[in-house]
Amino acid sequence: MLVEYEELYDAYIDCRKRKRSSTNCQQFEIDSTRKLWQLWKDLNNGSYTIGRSIAFIVHHPKDREVFAADFRDRIVHHLIIRRIEKLLEEEFIEDSYSCRKGKGTLYGIERCEMYMREVSENYTKKAYILKGDFKSFFMRINKPKMYQAICDLLDKRGNFDEESKTFMKHVIWLIVFNRPQDNCIRKQPKSAWKCLPKDKSLFSCEADYGVPIGNLTSQIFANLFMSAFDHWIKDTLGIKEYGRYVDDFYIVMLYSQVLVALIPQIRKFLSDYGVTLHPHKVSIQEVEKGIQFLGQVIKPYGRLVARKTIGTLYTKLQTFDDFIEWHKVHGERLSEEDIEYIVSSVNSYYGYFRQSKSYRLRKKIAQSELIKPILEYATFDTNYTKIIKLKKDEKESNNIEAFSPMGHVRLSRRSHRRVQDNKAVG
Fold first, then answer.
1. Peptide bond before 373: cis, by omega within 30 degrees of 0?
2. Whole-angstrom Cα distance, residue 290 to residue 292?
3. Are the CB atoms for 373 and 318 separated by under 8 Å?
4. If you average pLDDT over residues 258-278, what whole number do you get?
5. Contact 34, 19 (CB under 8 A)
6. How far, in Å, CA of 24 to CA of 412, rounded?
7. Among candidate residues 221, 212, 275, the one with its CA nearest the CA of residue 99
8. Which of 92, 166, 344, 361 maximizes the CB count within 10 A of its CB?
9. Is the pLDDT of residue 328 over 60?
10. What pLDDT digit, counting tens, does each position of 276-316 carry?
11. Residue 70 main-chain phi, psi, to 5 deg
12. What pLDDT, on a 0 to 100 scale, did the predictor assign at position 425?
């Protein structure tokens, strides 16, 4: 048996975590037993094919094209990643931070700060940091080379029998060489794509280039694709003070001249993979002046929240305010799900802010006009570490009626569009 049913079911459970409120997941869960059984048969008899993706544009933190794979295909993505996760961990360097258990943005920031302190001997010596960014990274990934890197990993480290290995290579081939842009469902009109440069969209990619942003496999396979670059920096060049998160990387050294000389070498190595350095996002700076990395500014006296991250929160709060005001004007009540979404969204930022010197910032936001509409339904704790949804009796004590569930619009997907439509009509 190529795939055990229990293994597929575990992948399904893993896939639906934090996704059960999504329309795609809910549709699959209608008669999920039959659908999962059919997927199991398709995988084992070789008839599995990839379904249609949903394409849309998101605007925060920046304009970006996203392809959401069909839920059935996402289960297969999780199945494959669960099988090769251990192999990937053996291949990745310690300072590759994206999409890995125990890693992530905070880990990457802390490692960068550690290297800055080590090289500068706790900021007593002058040291420099090179920051770089890959231009249009996901759109410039060479599919044949990425697929070959995966196959090499399976051949080199994989402990699978030949039948299982052949099966996995076939499914991975389907995923890698799938062109979702040829058969997708657009959730927005084509005019929505005008905000994107051509090199930021799969619709403008050459045949063997580009992977969809939004798929688990895209992120992890892309990480493996760039693993050669990581090992070249760490092993071949012998540079220890290096780290990368997706398309952002840094190198810390004592001498700026060495970093300047390194840039052409980096460009040449990346060109063999079809990847280029962003011409406007390569910089060399003294570490004591601080550096922005993964949403924080690392300074000698501590870490601060980057202005861009703060601006993103303010934009989101304005969207929430417009959403709440729209409901008031139309005499509608927010659903409990909408309130929970707003609270969890604000808390995701506050949880990130707490990892830096941000008490004054958190207090300032908590006392701002932008947060006031939300405070009808929630309150901050004493140290401004999080926002807490008010209970029913607390709402009533604030002269707010208890909210009953209604046929509501899901805030996470439609609120901004509904607010904008209302403004247009007004």
1. no
2. 7
3. no
4. 94
5. no
6. 14
7. 221
8. 92
9. yes
10. 999 899 999 999 999 999 989 999 988 999 998 899 899 88
11. -60, 145
12. 35
Q: Are 273 and 146 in contact (CB under 8 A)?
A: no
The CB density around residue 211, as the number of other CB atoms within 10 Å, is 27
- For the record, the structure tokens of 412 come out as 């996470």
Query: Which amino acid makes up residue 6?
Result: E
pLDDT at residue 143, rounded to an integer:
95
For 330, other C-beta atoms within 10 Å of its C-beta total 8
Chain mean position to CA 255? 33
* Tokens linked to 384: 């401004």
Is the sign of the CA dihedral 209, 214, 216, 222 positive or negative?
A: positive
What integer pLDDT is reported at residue 61 of this predicted model? Answer: 72
Interval 51-86: pLDDT, tens: 999 999 988 778 899 999 999 999 999 999 999 999
342 in helix, strand or coil?
A: helix
How many Å apart are CA 184 and CA 193, to the nearest integer?
Answer: 14
Q: Using an 8 Å Cβ cutoff, are 344 and 336 in contact?
A: no
Whether cis (ω within 30° of 0) applies to the bond prior to 61 is: yes
Residue with tokens 């795939």: 3
Q: How far apart are CA 362 and CA 381, in angstroms?
A: 11
Average pLDDT, the chain: 88
β pairing state of 387-389 and 242-245: unpaired
| Tokens of residue 3, six digits | 């795939």
- Alpha-carbon dihedral of residues 410, 64, 26, 413, nearest 10 degrees? 10
Q: What confidence tens digit (pLDDT) does each residue in 367-392 have?
A: 999 999 999 999 999 899 999 988 76
CA–CA separation, 363 vs 382, rounded Å? Answer: 10
Instruction: Show Cβ contacts of residue 247 under 8 Å, excluding neighbours closer than 6 positions.
Output: 133, 134, 137
pTM of the model as a whole? 0.82
* pLDDT for position 171: 96
Find the helix packing angle between 71-91 and 5-15, rounded to 10°: 100
